[in-house]
Amino acid sequence: MQHTLMRANSYPAGAACSGRASQRRAQPVTVCSGASRTPQQGIAPMRGSSACGASGRLPAPFSSAAASRPTAAGRRGAVRVQANWGAPVEFQPAKVVSNSPAAAGPLHKVVIDVGAPLAAGYTVPGQFVQVKVGDSKPGFFAIASAPGAHAGSGQLEFLIKGAPGSTAELLCNASAGDPVSVSPVMGKGFALDRLPASTTRAVLLFATGSGISPLRAVIDSGALAGRDVTLYYGTRNPESTAYSELLPQWTAAGVKVVSVYSESKQGYVHDVFEREGLAALPADAASSVGAMLCGHKGMCQAVTALLTAKGVPPEKILLNF
Predict the structure, then answer these.
(1) Are 302 and 260 in contact (CB under 8 A)?
(2) What phi, psi does 96 have (nearest 5°)?
(3) Which residues pair with 208 in a beta bridge?
């Protein structure tokens, strides 16, 4: 799920972009694609990625010391991790259902059975959970499946990038049936109410690498149905593109997909948008255009600057934290 950048929507505790978080704030960054540097080489990664992402490193506001409660065999127990500001995070037992490669490189699609009560807390695309494997530090991971996608099953899907030495790497190496510990669903997700369909006719989505995770949840949720939606999706090459099998499905649903491969000398996501997309924005972009971003800090900053220069209000440029 990646986490001290621009705040279009701040949440109290947790970056779903995946990974590192600010040492000063209790707000991890996007649950976008965490500290991943792979997809858009040359763009400085977000300082502290969030739930966007998938490397899932422990944000600073949380202590890595977790006290586990002993439980009788077969009985569900909980583990608490103390947040630096005093709010405890209680972890519940969960189980890996499946783990399969999502693309070339260390990207995996991991499905976890968190139980129906915990899964019911997932109501807005862009929310995230913390995950521990054994006594590992908690990782922050954006939920990739849409809210209600596995209604009643208690299962949540994640796109995980296995950064060496991280909880994300442990998850990428996990097998079906392996136990993990999961926090309640956290964060406010994307503030979709800021992009009402009555006035926001065009919605631009920008993702790099594993930052596609929460945006996949947005698309599959149907929240943008009937609008003019364009996805700028940056990866290294076609082989390293997660959810490539879903792109035709998204296109059929009305999403214009602009694939940006950094190895092809197209430039990066913001370069392609500036070159090909900016001039195509409607004249009333200030009122009719909204955007959602998840990925590298450099991309997010560059795209935000381009959009605001066109008159798009900052409150209509959303991050999932």
Answers:
(1) no
(2) -70, 130
(3) 234
- Is residue 257 very low, low, confident or very high in pLDDT (cuts 50, 70, 90)? very high
How many CB atoms neighbour CB 78 within 10 A?
12
What type of residue sits at position 212? I
Question: 50: exposed, middle or buried (C-beta count within 10 Å: 0-12, 13-18, 19+)?
Answer: buried
Residue 268: other Cβ atoms inside 10 A: 24
Number of residues assigned to the chain = 321
Interval 150-188: pLDDT, tens: 888 999 999 999 999 999 999 999 999 999 999 999 999
What is the rounded CA–CA span in Å between residue 44 and residue 14?
21
d(Cα 201, Cα 223) in Å, to the nearest integer?
13
From the CA atom positions of the chain, what is the Rg in Å? 18
Taking the C-alpha atoms of residue 32 and residue 54, their distance in angstroms, rounded to an integer, is 7
Q: Which tokens hold the place of 51?
A: 């739930």
Give the position of tokens 């006290």: 67
- Spatial strand order of the sheet with 255-261 comes to 255-261, 228-235, 202-208, 289-294, 317-318
Residue 89, CB-side half-sphere exposure with 13 Å CA sphere: 32
Residue type for 298, please? Answer: G
End-to-end Cα, the chain, rounded Å:
10
In three-state secondary structure terms, 58 is coil
pLDDT at residue 221 greater than cutoff 90 = yes
pTM of the model: 0.78
Backbone angle region of 311, left / alpha / beta, with phi > 0 → left and psi within -120 to 50 → alpha: left
Neighbours of 179 (CB within 10 A): 11
User: Which is it for the CA torsion 100, 127, 7, 63, positive or negative?
Assistant: negative
The partner residues of 256 in beta bridges, in order of sequence, read 230
With 0-12 / 13-18 / 19 or more C-beta atoms within 10 angstroms meaning exposed / middle / buried, residue 227 is middle
